[in-house]
Amino acid sequence: xxxxxxxxxxxxxxxxxxxxxxxxxxxxxxxxxxxxxxxxxxxxxxxxxxxxxxxxxxxxxxxxxxxxxxxxxxxxxxxxxxxxxxxxxxxxxxxxxxxxxxxxxxxxxxxxxxxxxxxxxxxxxxxxxxxxxxxxxxxxxxxxxxxxxxxxxxxxxxxxxxxxxxxxxxxxxxxxxxxxxxxxxxxxxxxxxxxxxxxxxxxxxxxxxxxxxxxxxxxxxxxxxxxxxxxxxxxxxxxxxxxxxxxxxxxxxxxxxx
Length: 258
Ligand code: MG
Known about the structure:
By secondary structure, the protein is an alpha+beta fold. The chain has a single domain, classed as Creatinase/methionine aminopeptidase superfamily (Creatine Amidinohydrolase, Alpha-Beta Complex). The strands form 4 sheets. Strands 8-7-9-14-15 form a 5-stranded antiparallel β-sheet. Strands 1, 2, 4 and 5 form a 4-stranded antiparallel β-sheet that branches. The chain has a 3-stranded antiparallel β-sheet with strand order 3-12-11, with no helix packed on it. Strand 11 and strand 12 form a beta hairpin. Helix 1 packs antiparallel against helix 2 and helix 3 runs antiparallel to helix 4. The mean pLDDT is about 100.
């Protein structure tokens, strides 16, 4: 799992370098797939339930499952949510990150806040991923934080166990009471992945059969780590420099910590 998660994390770093004004989402897909193949892995999402891309790329009001396209050009001020899985040695690493095209300074203040809230909510959720805790403790902490900051947590898609398969038990919702769900055990590996929307939690699926958009046209952010449950602090298996850079870049945006 460490190897698979390291590869998926490094592929996400490579994706970040490919995201710039004028690039197409196909170019970004290519950068990810090339990186994963070059390092002996396979893009997990390709063909999963028939998904046509190597990775999912969702722009602005798109929440999840966006299909890479040669026709889709990135523009300064866009936000790009990339969800990426890599399989190597029989195991899967899964992670997602929302990148600002042209840097944080190109974003409207409310968009920068959306990204910060979503990223923070993930780390708050991860802090609850401890041996003996219920999955509901993660979801409750994520939802409470997101809603305290005036934003909406998506319910239609949830986090999950990850290991030999991309989606394993248990489900990890980003909402609900603390008492929900099963208890986490040592050495469980789980993907925690809040999606945060600007205007409504409701999604609408586009005619391509894949892309889910924010139903009121607001922007959407998505951050995901694969995490191992230990005797103590959870181990973030997909950590990399882009996460630390984001923490620094959004430092001056005030949030409410309920
Ligand atoms: Mg996932």
